[in-house]
């Protein structure tokens, strides 16, 4: 599904990713953890080309997206992304947020796009908010709408960058529930998170990053109980 | 600021009216300036020239900002309500300027429904703005410029159809532009005079006296020769 | 000059010669010019601002350079010279061979002038929008220009609306120099009254009050818009 | 119009009639006017800004109200009307009976105009100074106005310097309308050349370039000042 | 020396001081402590009329400064004030900072003012900094200059509002030393501080404020060891 080969990324002189190799199979849920600044966000952003890789290859369904001749907007349709700060479009209603890309990018009819939107709103439990503006929603509701918005493009992979860390504690659960449900339905996902309990529960594989590299990986439960690397131990001792 | 001192006399003019007054280098020169200099000299005062928009001249003399106006100003009833005019010192007329290839406009009546440029507040402006055709009651579309030259400029560009200006400045200005000509058709005849504040008879009489003097002693003819290349 | 008689005399002439019509058509010309200028300025401003903030794909870097160079030249020249010089230039040189209604030419000229200033406002507005908005748009598969058009500009625009109305007010005032090329705006209406009556104070007072009424009306509109914005939907 | 012959013809006349002198004295007049306007604007601006930010002692509240009212009226009228209307008003009405060099009148008029805009800059500058400075001054026994003069204004002034230079640049451009009341600045020099030669493009180009050189020179000065400020003593 | 009678101060509807009575005798050092927002700063600021009292009287040397006909600038010459954030004048050298008020307010000659300034600079141990600008000084140095500046007006009372709480820990001592020395010389002082050790050492009397009132007072050592009020105990348990 996704194959990452020798991925490097620098910002000017700062080397942020220093050679990442990984492959994510269809239907798997990869949870990425690691200290702040270790490059987790950058890794995710390279995968949907929000950042241009400095070196290495990223193949999605066998297509190398680092190839200059690729139409990046097509790739992005396959890869949904959910951000820490939701990034809903404040000047559009919930419904417009969700239908925008299907109509503009997929050239779907408004009718069809709305149908899909309502289905997704039902899924995230916010059908009654269709005509609200984002500023009327709570953080948890916003994030669920953001997930629905990404799903509306019917992506093959979903990337989550700390989807719950900007939320008040009482709203974390409702968002995690939605993601969990997606996992159960077999969506391929990469999730950067600090919610270790959640990581253990939904992750089919855990990736621990440090200083731009994957330092350790494996079954989440095993890594949590038996970290091999010193750094992993240190990190887990702080966050668990 | 300094208030007007006793030994200075201020002449108001609009230095865009060659050869009566224009700016050359840094100086305002011309027929009116020379006459004013003579007047100042004979009154034992120093002349100060105030250059302003033509349309502000009447107000300026009425308010005392300037002592007299010498600006190729045509004697006119309306104006005479606001200022006192001296004796006439120059006979002029209004002329129509058109593009060289324009044979359609030959007299005032032909200006009806045309775009006609004038200098704001001049006799030409007053005439054209108030013009109503005898035949069909039509009027002229007037465009009022601050400077006659700008009106001729726009004529040469084809933005307007004709310009009405005083004869002498029209000759000077037309010489600078290609492709425009003065129509020799007879038009309003008029007289230029100096203007003083209403009721300032003292200055008015002095001016009239001096004007008579220079006409008698040949100074005036010499000035005409210098500026118009002809004698009246 | 302030005397009762001169006042009566002036206002008699004002009625008699229908100067109110002159004034009214002056107001019309000023507003028409200002409206045209605002629209043109806005269009130019949006284009220039987008050019200024855009990062072109690598293949088109040369185009980016050229466009950015032109935008910079345009902004520098406009901001470095008086509006009246620009208006004269456009009227007498650029549009030399074009016959066009004067308010339209004035509107175009002042629009070209205003574009440089609006570009600055719009650029600041665009850069004030959270980067996350662009990222969210792109991550959904929208192109850079689609995201700009559908997501960034509408938001930036709402935020800038008060500043743009204020630019409109600036234009009402700036256009007062159009008389220099024969335009017949409010200021010129005052000039005509001055020239005909020889009275300065009353025409100038009328012109002053007219401008004050116009600018304060639009200032009020701006305040209302600002208030609406503050408690707006987003 | 752009042809080689007309260019040669124009520049021959340029030399022959000493238009460079006209231009030079135009530059002089523009700069003189701008300088006078800046000084007057600064003085008015400081006064108005102080009135706007001051809190008078209880006994003098009535005076505060009057002064603040006047300041507001002044700022509103100036910001609500075109500069050319103000200049005409001052020249033709206020200073009607005064004989004064035109650049001085222009300078005064534009200074009065600029004061309202500078007041805004200065007010912002003053309010940008840490409140603790006023408190420290007062706690040492300095009066409100001593503290303003010795502590607040000097600091505010340094911070505002770039903005004030930029106002100077704005004034260089704004004064271009002085020709409308007979001033003989750069723009008017261009007009004279146009009238005399019948050529538009060359005079306007010369005027444009002259303004560009002036404004960009002062922009450069502003940049230098800004840099100095940033690594300044405080 | 200073007598405070029924001092009340409100900001709009907010009652900050709710009736303070106290008297500070010549040569005494009163240390004011209390939780944040209890009105300590406001109390001090009323004493040199930085804030106008809403009700009550403040007598300095028998003169009621709340009387409207009093020249406040004269009162302020008797009362020096030192602020948390130093408030040095950044556009003046150290010397100019110190000589400004003596020259402008006391109409002293520059010569004389400079002599006094050098004496005071010597006292606070910063003679060599006379011609520096404030931005070249450390926090502790700035505060010592601020003290010298206040002393230059030869005040009868010195007010200190948390003079060390904006300082890096290593600079606190040098400032406290200077204040201690002043105390030993018999300067009348009111000091708001969170430095309890210092309070114990130099304070002749401790005042504990809470919610706009003086809740408890007495010899610092006694109050620290044996607070009577529950609130005082609670407060001290947190800060000691
Ligand atoms: N656009 C950028 N330009 C320059 N440096 C950047 C950029 N984006 C990220 N970095 C740097 O790259 C490094 C890794 O950043 P990244 O956001 O990927 O870390 P992270 O693991 O997601 O951390 P966190 O848990 O705090 O989100 C950091 O040092 C960051 O400062
Ligand atoms: N100028 C003012 N306007 C309105 N409220 C004020 C003002 N100054 C202080 N207050 C309020 O008065 C209360 C007491 O403030 P004060 O600064 O005196 O407390 P404090 O005891 O010094 O606290 P801290 O230890 O945090 O300095 C606070 O609630 C504060 O918000
Ligand atoms: Mg991150
Ligand atoms: Mg405090």
Automatic annotation (TrEMBL), chains A, E:
Chain ranges of the ABC transporter domain: 2-236
Example of a GO MF term: ATP hydrolysis activity
PROSITE patterns from the UniProt entry: ABC_TRANSPORTER_1, ABC_TRANSPORTER_2
Domain of life where this protein originates: Bacteria
Transport as UniProt keyword: yes
Keyword annotations of the record: ATP-binding, Nucleotide-binding, Transport
The keyword Transport appears for this protein: yes
A Pfam family: ABC_tran
Family: Belongs to the ABC transporter superfamily.
Protein name (database record): Amino acid ABC transporter ATP-binding protein
Source species: Zhenhengia yiwuensis
Upper lineage: Bacteria, Bacillati, Bacillota, Clostridia, Lachnospirales
UniProtKB/TrEMBL annotation, chains C, D:
Pfam families registered for this protein in UniProt: BPD_transp_1 (PF00528)
Family: Belongs to the binding-protein-dependent transport system permease family. HisMQ subfamily.
InterPro entries named in the record: AA_ABC_transptr_permease_3TM, ArtM/GltK/GlnP/TcyL/YhdX-like, MetI-like, MetI-like_sf
Keyword Cell membrane: yes
Record's keyword terms, sorted: Amino-acid transport, Cell membrane, Membrane, Transmembrane, Transmembrane helix, Transport
Superkingdom in the source lineage: Bacteria
Subcellular location: Cell membrane
Any Gene Ontology CC annotation: ATP-binding cassette (ABC) transporter complex
An annotated GO BP: amino acid transport
Segments crossing the lipid bilayer: 31-53, 73-94, 200-225
Gene Ontology MF: a single term: transmembrane transporter activity
Keyword presence, Cell membrane: yes
Main location: membrane
Domain (ABC transmembrane type-1) ranges: 27-222
Name by which UniProt lists this protein: Amino acid ABC transporter permease
Topology versus the membrane: Multi-pass membrane protein
């Amino acid at each position: 599904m996704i194959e990452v080969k020798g991925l490097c990324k620098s910002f000017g002189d700062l080397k942020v990713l220093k050679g990442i190799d990984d492959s994510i199979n269809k239907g798997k849920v990869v949870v990425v953890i690691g200290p702040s600044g270790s490059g987790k966000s950058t890794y995710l952003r390279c995968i949907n080309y929000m950042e241009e890789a400095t070196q290495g290859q990223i193949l999605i369904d066998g297509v190398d997206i680092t190839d200059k001749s690729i139409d990046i907007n097509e790739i992005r349709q396959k890869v949904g992304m959910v951000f820490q700060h939701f990034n809903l479009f404040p000047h559009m209603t919930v419904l417009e947020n969700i239908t925008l890309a299907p109509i503009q990018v997929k050239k779907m009819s408004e009718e069809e796009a709305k149908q899909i939107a309502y289905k997704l709103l039902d899924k995230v439990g916010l059908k009654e908010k269709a005509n609200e503006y984002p500023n009327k929603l709570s953080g948890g509701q916003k994030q669920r709408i953001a997930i629905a918005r990404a799903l509306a493009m019917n992506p093959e992979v979903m990337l989550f960058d700390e989807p719950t860390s900007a939320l008040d504690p009482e709203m974390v659960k409702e968002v995690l529930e939605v993601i969990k449900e997606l996992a159960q339905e077999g969506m391929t996902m990469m999730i950067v998170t600090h919610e270790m309990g959640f990581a253990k529960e939904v992750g089919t594989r855990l990736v621990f990053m440090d200083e731009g590299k994957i330092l350790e990986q494996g079954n989440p439960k095993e890594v949590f109980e038996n970290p091999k690397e010193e750094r992993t131990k240190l990190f887990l001792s702080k966050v668990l | 600021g300094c208030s007007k001192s006793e030994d200075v006399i201020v002449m108001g003019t609009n230095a865009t009216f060659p050869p009566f007054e224009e700016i050359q280098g840094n100086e305002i020169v011309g027929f009116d300036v020379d006459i004013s200099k003579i007047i100042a000299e004979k009154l034992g005062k120093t002349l100060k020239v105030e250059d302003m928009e033509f349309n502000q001249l009447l107000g300026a003399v009425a308010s005392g900002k300037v002592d007299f106006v010498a600006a190729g100003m045509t004697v006119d009833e309306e104006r005479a309500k606001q200022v006192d005019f001296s004796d006439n010192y120059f006979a002029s007329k209004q002329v129509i300027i058109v593009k060289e290839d324009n044979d359609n406009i030959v007299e005032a009546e032909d200006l009806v429904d045309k775009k006609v440029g004038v200098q704001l507040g001049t006799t030409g402006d007053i005439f054209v703005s108030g013009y109503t055709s005898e035949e069909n009651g039509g009027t002229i579309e007037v465009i009022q410029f601050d400077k006659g030259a700008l009106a001729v400029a726009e004529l040469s560009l084809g933005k307007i159809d004709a310009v009405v200006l005083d004869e002498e400045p029209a000759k000077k200005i037309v010489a600078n532009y290609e492709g425009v000509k003065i129509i020799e058709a007879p038009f309003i005849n008029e007289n230029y005079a100096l203007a003083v504040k209403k009721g300032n008879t003292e200055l008015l009489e002095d001016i009239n006296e001096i004007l008579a003097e220079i006409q008698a002693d040949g100074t005036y003819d010499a000035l005409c020769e210098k500026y118009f290349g002809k004698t009246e | 000059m302030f005397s009762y008689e001169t006042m009566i005399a002036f206002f008699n002439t004002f009625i008699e010669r229908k100067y109110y019509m002159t004034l009214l058509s002056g107001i019309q010309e000023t507003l028409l010019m200002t409206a045209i200028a605002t629209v043109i300025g806005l269009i130019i401003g949006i284009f220039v601002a987008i050019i200024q903030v855009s990062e072109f794909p690598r293949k088109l870097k040369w185009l980016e350079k050229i466009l950015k160079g032109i935008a910079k030249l345009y902004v520098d020249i406009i901001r470095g010279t008086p509006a009246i010089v620009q208006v004269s230039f456009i009227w007498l040189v650029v549009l030399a061979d074009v016959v066009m209604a004067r308010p339209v030419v004035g509107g175009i000229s002042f629009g070209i002038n205003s574009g440089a200033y609006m570009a600055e406002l719009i650029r600041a507005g665009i850069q004030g929008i959270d980067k996350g908005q662009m990222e969210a748009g792109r991550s959904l598969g929208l192109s850079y220009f689609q995201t700009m058009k559908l997501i960034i500009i509408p938001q930036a625009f709402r935020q800038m609306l008060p500043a743009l109305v204020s630019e409109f007010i600036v234009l009402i005032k700036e256009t007062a120099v159009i008389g220099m090329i024969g335009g017949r705006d409010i200021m010129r209406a005052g000039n005509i009254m001055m020239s005909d009556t020889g009275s300065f104070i009353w025409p100038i007072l009328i012109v002053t009050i007219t401008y004050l009424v116009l600018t304060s009306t639009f200032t009020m509109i701006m305040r209302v818009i600002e208030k609406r914005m503050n408690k707006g939907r987003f």
